[in-house]
Design a protein that fits this description.
By secondary structure, the protein is an alpha/beta fold. It has 18 helices and 21 strands. It has 2 domains: 180 residues, Rossmann fold (3-Layer(aba) Sandwich); 193 residues, 3-Layer(aba) Sandwich (Rossmann fold), CATH 3.40.50.10300. An 8-stranded mixed β-sheet has the order 12-11-8-13-16-17-19-20, with helices on both faces. Helix 5 runs parallel beside helix 6. The structure holds cytidine-5'-monophosphate.
């Protein structure tokens, strides 16, 4: 085993170690032991650096001593804007997610909030000065820049962003931003005219090219009386969620490189320009599958009937109204590797839907003649060319669930069917939970898996995991 002789360290390192040991009331040997222990626990890459003989600054902090050493560390830089008060709430939101937060206040930020507030909330010392002998004896700005997992700037003022874009380092905040090799997340906040100004636009574009991430700004009321527009800082909860996404370990992406098509929601079949036939599908299950497939790395095309849902992140959404429009959009999206037909497509449409609104008249209600819609699932399943390697349909049934689903698997020509009981007592239609059976056609016979009751999000995740399994074997 290698041994370390402090006497043989170079003079500068020895002096720094002596100073640090004295400050912490330890012997130099004990100080080295503490540094190595903390480095190994908190930051494997620092431990690796130490083992390669690279000296690292690493100061013990109250949080480490109290055993929170596995937490993510965030350096939070608070700029000088009225939104600085919200950054105090952000400290709490980040801590709720398990992060240890070290706050840096710019000079202007201290016009709005005090170091005492920041340190009381963060349970850490608050940093304000580049030339602070208590912190700079061991290059504190470098420590704040590197000895963390993420740097968050909230509020990021126009001035702070201009300094960053141009590499200034004349105060503690800008020096940290220049010295860091960690991801930076900015939450801009400024007057809408400042946000729209050509100089700010240039700086934002430059920062994005440099790999800096932005959250917000949001649109809304400004602190200035009677002013509104884009420039409000994102809410603390949004910033904390964005920060968390950077801190989470990268998720596996088993569907990377796969093109996945998903239909979702109901269709509306016009009776006349203002009336239509519809059903109670909320689209929640299909949207959840789209989100889960995108999270698994797939290239997702979501074709949706009219629903009240937002497009999941990273998904290409096409909105349609009727079954025929849905089929046309599906045909445009082909070829794909995997197609999942979760939409509750109307079986029938009205023949000769009126160009004008139908009028009440003496002759009584108009007779509505129905005709069959194209079956999108069956059409795609039976394609000779461009058939996706895996085609999955849904069977929403109110009785004889498994018999009907098994028959549907054969009739439609798809590979799998997700069968769910949608009788009103189950609350599946429009609800957040689902109990499904997965029917899979293997060698002509159907195997059936009964899944326990789950949220629609969990059904989506489980289905995507099964698809990823299949993608790894049969359909790769
Ligand atoms: O025939 P049924 O509507 O019960 O079949 C349900 C499955 O077929 C679902 O996957 C649904 O998205 C799909 N379907 C379709 N086009 C239709 C009717 C149903 O793609 N016109």
């Amino acid at each position: 085993m290698a041994s370390l002789t402090i006497r043989k360290l170079d003079d500068a390192l020895k002096a720094e170690l002596r100073q640090r040991a004295a400050r912490n009331g330890r012997s130099m040997e004990d100080e080295v032991r503490v540094m190595l222990r903390e480095a190994t626990h908190r930051r494997p890459e620092i431990a690796a650096g130490l083992s390669q003989g690279i000296p690292q600054s690493f100061q013990s902090t109250p949080a480490e001593d109290s055993g929170q050493s596995d937490a993510a560390w965030i350096t939070l830089i608070v700029g000088g804007g009225i939104a600085a008060y919200k950054a105090m709430d952000l400290i709490r939101r980040l801590m709720e997610r398990g992060a240890t937060v070290r706050v840096v206040l710019t000079r202007a930020a201290q016009q709005f909030v005090t170091p005492l507030t920041a340190s009381a909330l963060s349970h850490q010392r608050c940093y304000t000065d580049l030339f602070d002998p208590n912190s700079e004896f061991d290059a504190g700005h470098i420590r704040l820049a590197r000895d963390c997992d993420l740097v968050v700037v909230a509020p990021a003022t126009a001035d702070l962003m201009a300094k960053m874009a141009n590499g200034h380092a004349d105060d503690l905040a800008s020096a940290i931003l220049l010295a860091t090799n960690r991801q930076i997340l900015l939450a801009p906040a400024m007057n809408p005219l400042m946000w729209d100004n050509a100089a700010t636009r240039r700086n934002v574009a430059q920062l994005q090219r440099d790999g800096v991430a932005l959250i917000g700004p949001n649109a809304g009321e400004m602190a200035e009386r009677n002013e509104a527009g884009t420039g409000r800082m994102a809410e603390p909860i949004e910033i904390a969620t964005a920060a968390e996404a950077f801190l989470r370990p990268p998720q596996p992406r088993p569907l990377a490189g796969k093109r996945v098509l998903i239909t979702a929601g109901p269709t509306h079949e016009p009776i006349d320009p203002v009336r239509y036939i519809a059903n109670r599908s909320s689209g929640k299950q299909g949207y959840a599958i789209a989100a889960a497939a995108a999270a698994a790395g797939a290239d997702v095309i979501l074709i949706s009937g009219p629903v009240e849902l937002r497009a999941p992140a990273g998904v290409a959404l096409t909105r349609v109204e009727s079954a025929r429009e849905m089929l046309a959009a599906v045909e445009v999206a082909l070829p794909v590797d995997i197609a999942i037909f979760a939409a509750a497509v109307a079986d029938w449409r009205v023949v000769g839907a009126g160009e004008q609104k139908l009028k009440k008249g003496a002759g009584g209600p108009p007779p509505l003649q129905l005709t069959e819609n194209p079956d999108i699932l069956a059409t795609v399943s039976k394609l000779k060319a461009n058939r996706p390697a895996l085609v999955i349909g849904f069977a929403a049934e109110t009785e004889h669930l498994l018999d009907n689903a098994t028959a549907k698997l054969a009739r439609k020509g798809c590979d799998w069917i997700v069968a769910n009981d949608v009788s009103p007592a189950t609350g599946v239609m429009g609800g957040d939970r689902n109990t499904v059976h997965l029917l899979m056609k293997t060698d002509g016979a159907a195997t059936i898996e009964a899944w326990p009751a789950m949220t629609k999000d969990d059904v989506a995740t489980a289905l995507v995991a099964r698809i990823a399994q299949a993608a790894g074997s049969q359909i790769a």
